[in-house]
Amino acid sequence: MKNLLLAILICLACSGLAQAHSLHLEVSDNGDGTMLIRGAFSTGETAAGAMVRLVARSSGTVLTELRLPTLGEIELPIPAEPYDIVLDGGPGHGVRKAGIAPPGGFSPGTAPHASSFPPQPQYVLWTLALVLFSLTAVVGWRTQRRIARAADCI
Amino acid sequence: MRTSQSIHVLTQSHRKIGLTVAVLFHVALYFGVLSMFTPQLAQWEKQSRHFTASSDAILPLDSLVPQRLDEGTWPETGITITLPGSREPALAIGHKLMAPILVNPATGQTITDEGPGPSALFVELHLGRVLGRPGVIVMGLACAGALFLVVNGWWLCLLKPGSRVPLFCAHSTSWERGHRHLAQWLFPVMLILALTSAFFGLMFSAGGGLAWVASRGEAAQVQPVLGAAVFPRQAQAQATGQSAAMVSLDNLLADAGQAFPDMNIQKITLDHWGDRAATATFSGPSRTRPWLTERINRILATYSLVDGSLLRHKSVDDTHIVARSLSAFYFLHFMTDAGLAVRLPMFAGGLGLCMAVSLCLLSWSAKRIRHAPSTVSTFVQTRLLAASVVGVLPATAAVLAAQWLLPTDLPDRPTWLAGVLYLTWFSSLTWCVARTNVFHAVRDLLAFAGVAFCLLPVTHGLGVNIFFWTALNQGLTSIATVDMALLLTGLALCLTAWRMTTNFPGERT
User: Are B435 and A143 within 8 A, CB to CB?
Assistant: First the structure.
């Protein structure tokens, strides 16, 4: 009986093995104008082979693009302008982080690009949802009153 | 006396737990039933997959794969080639960290994928992932509650066979009878679906917790704790750095097919392509025992890409018993490798269970309206239930129509599609509260959904200029089948709406 229970518990726990893994991006400053970028899955597996991109915030141009080597980490020089680090782990796995600044700070005159948050679709859809919610509340209140009046008449 | 007490306890628990989890379980179940046809829907919703590739017309792998591998920068290991099949008509060359390159196997042309469509959204809704981790946990709990309801309901039926004592109201309505009869007839299928749903639903969310307890707080994921024991990994050969000529992939595929006839080869994994240590691993489910090889316990055969020799073979039984048991659970729930003989009864069971949940909620609404027709709580509860359960039908039709009506180059298209589904679903609540009789609103929603489903084949036909008859003529069986299924669904909904006009309990207003 004990063994059976143990087998069931292991089975239950193992079903989580097939669930999606999340990708983690770690960036550390080496203090000498370079940084160490490390990619790994939440399972502990390295993200060797994942594409790393350094993307300029002002223009959106890709400053550097390369794959993580077998160890899952890579050392890169820190760009002089504000940038984002993008770790592309394929469909459903992508992490974006603001890049760390070089020792003397970012070069002047490279102001970050204005943020586009919130994105347009969410903005429009939430507004529509709010309108619909208000309409539902008003119409519902009126209908409920009609029902209550009709019940009183009976 | 003891029996009557048991019936009372069972009835009360069935009612209370049912009201708590029924709506969520209905959502999981409804989108789960739709997800059974994800491969067909995915082909229908993407114009890039509107082609037929008979086995005679498929180009050899040697003319499709090496060229693509030479063109791009690929990781050294784990390059996967997914062969065309009933789930995906295109040949996919990819890696777990890259979006795959899709190739039409008949013409050799690269296909541009349209991105996720409604079928992907249905899967997300089925799993509750649209609300992130809390959504998955809530769906898991709802499925566990549903398992209790299935067992508890069956027990009730055993204690009072042919009972005329209704669960909810003084008048045993046709809805309630339908709920009970469906539950009795489809009990085995319902039990399998509810059991596997609860299993996966809970463990997808709670597996980390179990791992944390088992490892005394050292690991928050199952993989590091049990993965090595249940799915041991073979030591991978290191690249030598010396280039070598690769043998023909087609010849290797034919050799693997002949050597292991039980293996239904679906995927080839390439490691160290172009190197002296290059290997190709052929994998797929078992033809004779697919329930033991679903998703996680594939049969494997690894060949050297330099001399074509067999390096390793893993059969169905060369694995941990937990992996095989888990595979059986996957088979019963996902049915990826199951044939029609398994799929159809499970689909019927899922649909029946969906209808049973809908009927019980409508029956409960009828009872509430009879007892307290004019209270605010009755008004809110009955409208919310109707909109949640029936409103999902027009919402589904709307998102499928939006797939063909929205511009293909619309930025952030998946968000717009999801928005169409949620807004249509919410507007069904607006319609429900606008009507003084909630059952009139239900009938209207069924009629709207019926008409919309009937129009979907036309919308699709206008979008891609391939109508039902042209799809059949061109051999696009999957596309034609989905068109026909949508039309039949629409007609069935219209018929149900028409029947409801003469056969339902109304409110007093």
Answer: yes
Please name the member of B76, B95, B419 whose beta carbon is closest to the beta carbon of A125.
Answer: B419
- Four-CA torsion A56, A58, A59, A60, nearest 10 degrees: 50
Please classify residue B358 by burial: count the beta carbons closer than 10 Å to its beta carbon, then call 0-12 exposed, 13-18 middle and 19+ buried.
Answer: buried
Give the pTM.
0.82
Contact B457, B487 (CB under 8 A): yes
Q: What pLDDT is recorded for position A18? A: 46
Tens of pLDDT, residue by residue over B412-439, are: 889 999 999 999 999 999 999 999 888 8
**Is residue B224 classed exposed, middle or buried when 0-12, 13-18 and 19+ CB atoms within 10 A define those classes?**
middle
Tell me how far apart the alpha carbons of residues B508 and B310 are, in angstroms, rounded to a whole number.
77
Tokens for B359?
């009927």
Contacts A6 to B, Cβ<8 Å: none
Question: What is d(CA B26, CA B425) in angstroms, rounded to the nearest whole number?
Answer: 14
User: What is the C-alpha end-to-end distance of chain A, expressed in Å?
Assistant: 64
C-alpha–C-alpha distance, residues B118 and B396, integer Å: 9
Closest-CA distance of chain B to residue A129, Å:
6
pLDDT digits (tens, 9 = 90+) for B156-189: 888 776 555 444 444 446 777 788 888 888 888 8
- One DSSP character per residue, B19-63 reads HHHHHHHHHHHHHHHHHTTHHHHHHHH-GGG-----TTTPPPHHH
Q: CA B411, B413, B419, B420: dihedral to nearest 10 degrees?
A: 120
Q: B355: which 2 tokens? A: 């209808």
| CA proximity to B268, closest of B288, B290, B246, B289 | B246
Q: Does the structure show a pLDDT above 50 at A83? A: yes
CB-nearest partner of B436 from A21, A119, A147: A147
Tell me the two tokens of residue B222.
Answer: 């199952």
Q: Where is pLDDT greater, at B297 or B246?
A: B246
Cβ atoms of residues B211 and B200 within 8 Å: no
- Least Cα distance to A13 among B108, B223, B391, B506 occurs for B223
* B227, B321, B435 ranked by CB distance to A17: nearest: B227
